Structure formats: C-alpha cells, structure tokens
Amino acid sequence: MYHFAFRVPAWTWPLLILAGAAQAADRVLSLEEAVKIALEQNPLTRVAGESAAGAKEAVGEARASYYPDLAIRASFNRWERHAFLPSGLARPGIPSTIGPTNDWYTGVATRYTLFDFGRRRAETGAARARLGIAREDAGRVREDIALSVHQAYFGLAASLEMEGVARKALTRAEDHVRVARSRKEAGAVPQADVVRAQVEAAGAQLALEHAQGMVRVAAGSLNTAMGVPVEASVEVDRNPREIIPPASIDLTEALERAVSARPELRGAQQRIEASRRGVDVVRGAYGPKVKGEASLGWRDTSYFPQDKDWLVGVSVELPIFTGFSRKHRLARAKSELSREEADARRLMQTVRQEVWAAHSKLRESYEATVSTEVQVRDARESLRLASERYQAGAGVITDLLDSEAALARAEAVRVAALWDYQAARSTFQRSVGELSPKSQP
C-alpha cells in the first residue's frame, strides 16, 4: 500500500481539513484516501452529481402528470356586445346591444387526465432511463478521476525513485573522480582520466537536477489531480504494491466483468431504454385523450359575486390530421433507437478491446519488472569488477565509466518498469470498471 506525507503551509490547512486530506502537518495519506479527496474536490464530480440530481427532478416532473391540476381563478371583464335578435322580436325601444356591464368571477377549477394512450407511462419511463444515464455518467467520471489520481501518484513515486537513482549515480561518479585523481597523483594514469571522470560527474549532476525538476512537476500533477493547492509539498512512501503475475488473472472472466460493470455500457443500455420509451411517447400521440374537468365559482356584476357558476364534464380529444408531424416524429424516434442500439454494440467492442489492451500492457510491464531485476544485478556486478580492475591498474577509465553508465541506465529502466506495472495494473482495473469506490450520486 502507498502512503505519502503531506506537508503544507498553515494557510492551506482549512481547505485540506474540509477535504478530509489532513488534520495536522505530516498527515500520511494512503492512495485510497487520495482518491477519496479527489472525488470530493474535483469539479467534474459536482458536475456529474448535479446532472444526476437534475435528472432525478425530471422523474418527479414526469410523475406530476398522474396528479390532477387544481387552480384558483379570478377575473374581471367589462364588456358590451351587439345582440342579433330575430326580425320578429325587434321592436322600437328595445336596445340592440347588451352592456356595458362588469363581469366579476372567482372560483376553483380542476382537470385530470383519465386516459392518454400510455403517454404518461412512457414519459415517466423515459425520465427514469435518463436518470440512469446520468448516474452511469457520474460513475464513469469517478473512474476517470480515480485513474488520473493513480497515474499521478505513481508518476510522483517514479520521479522520486528516479531522483534517488540520479543521486546514487552522482555519488558513484564523484567517487570515480576521487579514484582517478588518486591514481593520477600516484603517476599511474594520465590527466585525461581525471578530466573524463569529471565530465561524467558533471553529466550526473545535470541528470540529478533534471530528476529533481521532474519531481516538482509530478508533485504538482498529483496535487492538481487531488484538487489541493499545486504548491503543497508532497512526499511519497515508495513501497510498491504487491506485484501479481498476470497469469493469475482470468481474462475471459475479466471481459465478462467489464461488460456488466463498466458504467459506459450500463449507460448505453439506459440510452436504449430512453429511446424505446421515446418511441412509445410518440405513439401515444396517435390515441385519444380523455380528460375530466370540474369548476365551481361565483360570477356577478358586483365586486362580490353572488351567482353560482359550476361545471362538471368529460372531454375526449382525438387528433385527426397534424400535417404528418406525428409520422415524422415516430420515424425519427425509431431512427434514434436504432442508432443507440448500434452505438451500444460499438461501445461493447471498444470496452472489450480496452480490457484486452490493458491486460496485454499489464503482461508486458510484468515481464519488464522480471527482466530488469536481472539486468540491474548484472550491471552492478559489472561495475564492481570494472572498479576493482581500474583500482588495481588492470583496467582503463573507459571501462569503468561505461559500466557506471550501464548501471545508471539499468536502474532507471528498473524504476520505470516497476511503476509502469503499477500504472498498468490501475489501468486494467479501470478497464473492468473496478477502480473507484462505488457510490450513487
């Protein structure tokens, strides 16, 4: 398990305490805690969470159509109308207009959809499917954030290891300079040996400075991935996780787990369901709507109306011709459904390919860790022998420095292989959808 000590200025403590990252200086965080901090602090997590919250409210909005509408109504009108009387009723002195008069009304009215050909059910189902899509998208975001933290974490650990390799190489180079000067003073070697050793030491110093710069960059990347101040000082415990042979992983089972666990695939199934419900919504427009309505109020010419005004009834609405809009909407909805089904098949192939590639990379990195261990051991032995020969006068400075360069390269390759394996392992876990802690927004 990885840990890192988090040393930060006092002014950053409140932020880190709120994030759960630290309660005091030198707080040691595990990799899992770092992922937790990132999931809490990364703005993408909030974006995904708010999208899911909005989709949940949309479900409630769709369910609202199952309840009756109830409204309080009040109105005032002043009107005058011409009265079209039959010719037999027209008499001199009888006015041909009604009004002007005041019309005051107050009351309550309700309306309820009794039958809508399955449209409300389809709309509610589509809203639930969109909620599922939002939740799966949130899961995908969590997996991506977790992977970015893993990669940044391992990148920092690798950079620190590389710094250690460069520091040891510089120490050995300085020791070679000392040996060359000692032999030069004894008259056993020319001044060229000393100059050559000094050149190699200067190169080792430059390599150390480069490695230190990479550590600073990697620390900033980890802080950014966690959502904490980029300038915070980070120290990593460089004890790697246990190296597990890829042969112990059942690839067939991993492919099946990815199909069932990857949020992208589950989201694709929810998109298919939403599109299928969308087809049902459009089909519902072909059927009749039956609505019940009632109202009770008072109407009069005075400010406080006295005459009762009420209504109870049932209405049936069946569209006959809508300019072929329903036909086109239905065709479009079916096309969207077919597109989502095809995209789900494509996504499944992509996920399986990602698992396959991640497993292949894991195997490659594992084999590299095994081979580089032997390479480092042989390079150390070669340097020891070259050093002994040079000090005994049986070797030349070129052999010594070549052996030193070979050891430095082997150690660097070893560090890269070890941490590449850790990153490849996390990538494989991400490919099967098992990297981040599971939670529903």
Brief summary:
With 441 residues, the protein is α+β, with helices and mostly antiparallel strands. It contains 9 helices and 7 strands; from the N terminus they run E-H-E-H-H-E-E-H-H-E-H-H-E-E-H-H. The protein has a single domain (30-68, 117-286, 324-431), classed as Outer membrane efflux proteins (OEP) (Up-down Bundle), CATH 1.20.1600.10.
The largest sheet is: 4 strands, antiparallel
Count structural domains: 1
CATH third-level topology: Outer membrane efflux proteins (OEP)
Strand order of the largest sheet: 3-4-6-7
Rg result: 39 Å
Helix tally equals 9
Low-confidence stretches: 1-25
The N- and C-terminal alpha carbons lie at a distance of: 28 Å
Description:
The chain has 441 residues and is an alpha+beta fold. It has one domain (30-68, 117-286, 324-431): Outer membrane efflux proteins (OEP) (Up-down Bundle). Helix content is 63%, strand content 16%. It contains nine helices and seven strands. The protein has helices at residues 13-19, 31-41, 43-63, 119-185, 191-226, 251-261, 263-284, 325-391, 397-431, and strands at residues 3-7, 27-30, 69-82, 97-115, 233-237, 289-300, 307-317. The strands form two sheets. A four-stranded antiparallel sheet has the order 3-4-6-7, with no helix packed on it. The chain has a three-stranded antiparallel sheet with strand order 2-1-5. A hairpin with a 6-residue loop joins strand 6 (289-300) and strand 7.
How are the elements arranged and paired?
Elements: E1 3-7, H1 13-19, E2 27-30, H2 31-41, H3 43-63, E3 69-82, E4 97-115, H4 119-185, H5 191-226, E5 233-237, H6 251-261, H7 263-284, E6 289-300, E7 307-317, H8 325-391, H9 397-431
Antiparallel strand pairs: 1-2, 1-5, 3-4, 4-6, 6-7
Helix pairs in contact: 2-4, 3-4, 4-5, 4-7, 4-9, 6-8, 7-8, 8-9
